[in-house]
Amino acid sequence: MSQRDVTETTESQIAVHWQEEDYYYPSPKFIGQANLTDPAVFDRFKLDNFPDCYVEYAEMLSWYKYWDEVLDTSDAPCFKWFKGGKLNASYNCIDRHLAENKNKTAIHFVPEPEEERIDHITYHELYVRVNEFAALLRNKAKLKRGDRVTIHMPMSAELPITMLACARLGVIHSVVFGGFPASACADRIVDSQSRVLITMDAYHRSGKLLDHKPHADEAVKLSEEQGQTVDTVLVWQRYPGKYSSDKPMKDGRDITVNEEIAKYYGERIEPERMLAEEPLFLMYTSGTTGKPKGCQHSTGGYLAYVTGTSKYIQDIQPKDVYWCMADIGWITGHSYIVYGPLSLCASSVIYEGVPTFPDAGRSWRIAQNLDVSIFHTAPTAIRALRKVGPDEPAKYNYHFKHMTTVGEPIEPEVWKWYESAVGKGEAIIVDTWWQTETGGFLCSTVPGISPMKPGSAGPGVPGIHPVIFDDEGNEIKEAGIAGNICIRNPWPGMFQTIWGDRDRFVKTYFERYCKDPKSTDWRDWPYLTGDAAMKAEDEYYRILGRIDDVINVSGHRLGTKEIESAALVADEVAEAAVVPVAHDIKGTEPDLYVSLKPGFEPSEDIAQKVSQAVIDQIGKIAKPRRVWLVPDMPKTRSGKIMRRVLGAISNKGDVGNVMTLANPEVVDTIKTMVEKE
Ligand code: WTA
Asked: Which of 263, 475, 504, 631 is most buried by its number of CB atoms within 10 A?
């Protein structure tokens, strides 16, 4: 595949225009204290030592029983790591720290209202709360090992408590991002067959106390319509003792957790001895087709991988106060707010609200007040913070040793502001490229060893061996040529399958480059990430964006199909096509083109209705920049909507040669319409 072809199919183009940047070197002060400074790690993790190299990560955990086999490939590409080993994730994140560190803060919960006190939860306190809630889950909600439970909660200390209580019992949790609407929650309840939903009555966001309970009622109703009954809804109260929702609790179904839990005071639950290959959780993510995919993550492999990468790439040490600003409802929050940091006995900060509320200094006050040493966020947040207060960080007395960026490509300009203003020139930065599916980091520099390069994620992290293929499956060895980035080898953090849909798992991630579908040799199963990338001379990878129909808004994946089918809910709509358009904060945002059924005249009301339909179905995050009501979609002769042409119009780019289209004249009409705005 030539570079031209890739840029045509690639949706996020920002990176393509970037120049090679100069290196930035980690400071001697950082190196002096880092967990990992010996480049021999790359020898230990080279392919010749695969898969045994990963024992190094597994040994960071406490096991009831060691594994019989490091990697079982007999059911490739559903790989089993540390097969036969037994452990419990809740034990590893809590119990094992008690002897030495029971009085250390595990979680600092920072409420959005600044006048409310920060809740500092020690490891012992976490132990108590997780055990009592686990008792409630077992005795009252009747949950047992292997059951799935859907969690639709805001950022709160109760969210990791809920997850860890599930893990203690071997119950598979499926956390749905709190900002998602009821319909998204219902889809996940149905797909995972959950009969228990765990929620919270309300939470603070941008200065308002949002009523969250109505989403639970609606989600249960929608699930029921799809044939999945939820018999128990567990409701945490944002203010224990006070119910903050307008919606009544439903008798016989809804249970107020903080009242009910009194019955379990003092209860201690022996952690289930889980097989390493038993699932720990599901995390749903958008794919090319409408239905979200439930990525199934294992207990042993996943926990080993997030612990190892938290130690080596995040450089987490017991003395650190670690703040990852992501939401726990995304994979970043699972791996790098909850499981990785707690497994390493760090103090992890959970912030309820918006980073710029009530003013541009809020994040830096939190950093100052808690003396945060490691900071982790996404380019979209960095851009927003830079926009509202470029000089704010200097006003606060905090010092980061380490900063992370994740979720989308970061422009070198923004990277440099992050480095100089937020990091005060003292912090190292890791640009971590990975996915919901991968459980943990794929590419990043190792902070105590390799220099940083703005705009490049870096080489594969230890044990990850990326390769770029062209469309025919030939390896692109030259630097500077874009192609489809794959990973040659499996790794412990990788998801095991798509929940209930092994065929889709194989098809989506492996079929394209697997030469022998019967093979049980891992070498035959390169993992297709779905991203386009290119490699520089120094083996640093630059991620260019998705090759599939996924739009990245503020670092969150939205399927084009999901947005389009939401638009079609409006009766007037005949066809819908969505394209990403560059946005200075969000990276990209969706621009929606809609053609109407015969008999309908374009009007502001219809545009409004379509926009609202998208918000209702998917959430505010997917709100289109504009809904363009067009006379027709530009189409190929075979009837395929040419999103590429619409994308060029939205982004004021070159539409290229459109003469081969079935209806080239419509391109000019649409162009004039958009340019007029
Ligand atoms: C993109 C988030 C460039 C990429 C952890 C990937 C990135 C998708 C980076 C996964 C990065 C993530 N640089 N692009 N550092 N990190 N991406 O599943 O397109 O929400 O495939 O996981 O985000 O998004 P997901």
From this structure: 504
